[in-house]
Amino acid sequence: MRQVTVTEHVLLHQTKSPSASGKFTALLYDLILAAKIIQREVNKAGLLDILGATGETNVQGEQVQKLDDFANRTLIHRLQRTGVLCAMASEENADLILVPEKFRRGDYILIFDPLDGSTNIDVNINVGTIFSILKRKSSSEEDVTMADVLQRGAEQVAAGYFLYGSSTMLVYTSGEGVHGFTLDPSVGEFLLSHPDIRIPERGKVYSVNEAYYHYWDTRTRKVVDYFKSPENERGAPYSLRYVGSLVADFHRNLLNGGIFMYPMDQRSPSRPQGKLRLMCEASPLAFLVEQAGGKAIDGSRRILDILPEHLHERVPLFIGSPRDVDTVTRIYSQTD
Ligand code: AHM
Ligand code: MG
User: Fold this and answer.
1) Domain 205-334 classified CATH 3.40.190.80?
2) Fold classification of 6-194 (topology level)
3) Ligand nearest to the CA of 121
4) Which of 88, 128, 240, 308 is least surrounded by CB atoms within 10 angstroms?
């Protein structure tokens, strides 16, 4: 059987897109290298002194896990040397990370969540790295500014994730469909395993942390009641699946159909917009899901249309099969 590597696949797609350049391939190469290093540590996490927390708190007010910190440092170290980035932004860093002057700088900006699903690290459950690639708008003669970074998700050049699961996968889009690659550890290459992924029109699964039911508003409760009802349009209750790693929950629903929800809740006045971050979690997954025929909204707005006001902005997220997301839109628009 002929096996297509990720580099081969990207090069093939680039010949179709005249605006594409070898820079994107270089960036992807270094991202893949960083992800291979991260997956190596994730795979032997139980054997090393790398489980548990570092004792520090990140910009989100959350405990930094050692593997989270390792993944973050690996990505920054590798990607600042790639020659095509001018800046990076990480879920773990409060400010923009400018590529130091000693390295060659380019026009691209990388935004990432280094290890999504941190609470699952210590218990050997799937985690992942989510990334989003933007192109700066200002001239490369000037220093990159926050205005260059705060772009709508619709302007992403590419986005994807690495899933460190029973096998390690890369799923990405550069606006020409969604393609999945599985790491063959014997040759160290990601090989095309899921070409042109399409999400089913409607799923059988809803994914939400239902323990927050009493913190939700009426609209969200109605949405979840709908998916549980035997009298919904499907004619049967959906199954509930919730790993607690967004990448893993998203990946399952992308392949099998379904909807993932992280609505706003009234737990904490400091985060009325739910938990997930617009730029490093919601937007890249929204780009992927739309490219696969799905939808992503915050309850009323398309995620990709939201202009971020700051780097670590949070947003409610409803993402998945188009008919399931349409149900949320309908219930939200009819309910006060
Ligand atoms: P993280 O990026 O710090 O790991 O936080 C995001 C994670 C998501 O992967 C997951 O969907 C969510 O937090 C789970 O949160 P909760 O425990 O509130 O359901
Ligand atoms: Mg995350």
Assistant:
1) yes
2) Fructose-1,6-Bisphosphatase; Chain A, domain 1 (3.30.540)
3) 1
4) 240
